Automatic annotation (TrEMBL):
Keywords, comma-separated and alphabetical: Cell membrane, Membrane, Transmembrane, Transmembrane helix
This protein's record includes keyword rRNA-binding: no
Pfam families: EamA
Origin organism lineage: Bacteria, Pseudomonadati, Pseudomonadota, Gammaproteobacteria, Enterobacterales
Major location category of this protein: membrane
Keyword Membrane listed: yes
TM ranges: 39-56, 68-91, 97-117, 124-147, 159-178, 190-206, 218-239, 251-269, 275-301
Annotated membrane topology: Multi-pass membrane protein
Coiled coil start-end: none
Protein name (Swiss-Prot/TrEMBL): Threonine/homoserine exporter RhtA
């Protein structure tokens, strides 16, 4: 079956739905599993699936590993073990929608970090977008108390997830700057493998993963399978299919659907955000759109849609 631009859009939306649902599903995983153990179980399934896909799609090449193994280990430690450890630990006290909004600012952080590495000033609109999005996140995290008075209370998990988002920004830039001669799929597969191995060591050091897995409920294990296969492997696969058909710029704009899906799922679960949080959500998404050049991309997307009309 030929992948049309319309199908690519649908697959991209499915990928963002998987990522948006990860935040709420992770809460189910953490009901009976400790965070590091749950993260290990997630990547057990994710690594198996991603390497099956790598072997089928591109083949496994030892030369790529030999050339980049040190970089893969470091990036796996930061972007897989560090980020996902922070994600699981942070969600013990953070809400899914807050976590999603914090993660939505990651592409802007990556753009600014890349500008620092290459010693060039980031575009003014990206800096403005970053500031606006951070204000929106602050509004959500503090439930409006930061701007409307009252005692400001920030969950420890929110700060942990923010640190994790910075780790993901470093990973994103690092894969472009330090990896050589590897495809995106190879980079993802090997960093995921090394990150999973590091997660195993951390889990055995701070938790007791074997007894914890034995005591975990069926629902928690099912949640780990979902975020390992659907929220990791299929999401990545569909996202990259979208990039291959429509290009990176037109696909990147869809990342802003992640917090929207996370919010929709949270509402369906009966957790209604306050008015201040809804305003913060809108401000954050506007800031992210500005920071990613979303307005220009959206104009291109509209033009692309017109060109593909039958």
């Amino acid at each position: 079956m030929r992948t049309t631009p319309q199908l690519a859009v649908m697959l991209t939306l499915i990928a963002t739905f998987f990522w948006g649902s990860n935040f709420q599903v992770t809460k189910f995983a953490l009901v009976s599993l400790p965070p590091w153990t749950a993260s290990v179980e997630r990547f057990f399934f994710a690594v198996i699936c991603i390497f099956i896909f790598l072997a089928w799609k591109e083949g496994i090449h030892g030369k790529v590993l030999k050339q980049n193994w040190r970089v893969f280990v470091v990036l796996g430690a930061i972007g897989v073990a560090g980020f996902n450890g922070a994600f699981f630990v942070g969600l013990q006290s953070s809400s899914p929608i807050t976590a999603a909004l914090i993660m939505a600012t990651t592409p802007i952080s990556a753009n600014i970090l890349e500008a620092v590495i290459y010693r060039r000033m980031p575009e003014f609109v990206r800096v403005v977008g970053m500031v606006i999005s951070l204000l929106g996140v602050a509004l959500v995290i503090t439930n409006g108390q930061l701007f409307f008075g009252g005692a400001v209370q920030v969950a420890t998990g929110d700060m942990i997830i923010f640190v994790g988002s910075l780790g993901w920004a470093i990973y994103t830039v690092g894969t472009r700057v330090f990896v050589s001669g590897a495809t995106p799929l190879e980079t993802t597969s090997w960093t995921m493998l090394f990150g999973a191995v590091i997660l195993v060591f951390i889990a055995f050091f701070v938790e007791s993963p074997v007894p914890a897995l034995s005591a975990g409920t069926f629902e928690s294990h099912l949640a780990c399978i979902y975020i390992g296969i659907g929220g990791s492997t299929f999401a990545y696969l569909f996202w990259n299919m979208g990039i291959a058909i429509r290009g990176a710029g037109k696909t990147a704009i869809f990342f802003n659907f992640v917090p929207i899906f996370a919010l929709a799922i949270q509402v369906m679960m009966g957790d209604i955000p306050s008015l201040a949080q809804v305003i913060g959500i809108v401000i954050t998404i506007v800031g992210v759109l500005l920071g990613q050049g979303g307005i220009a991309v959206w104009s291109v997307f509209r033009g692309d849609a017109k060109n593909n009309r039958l």
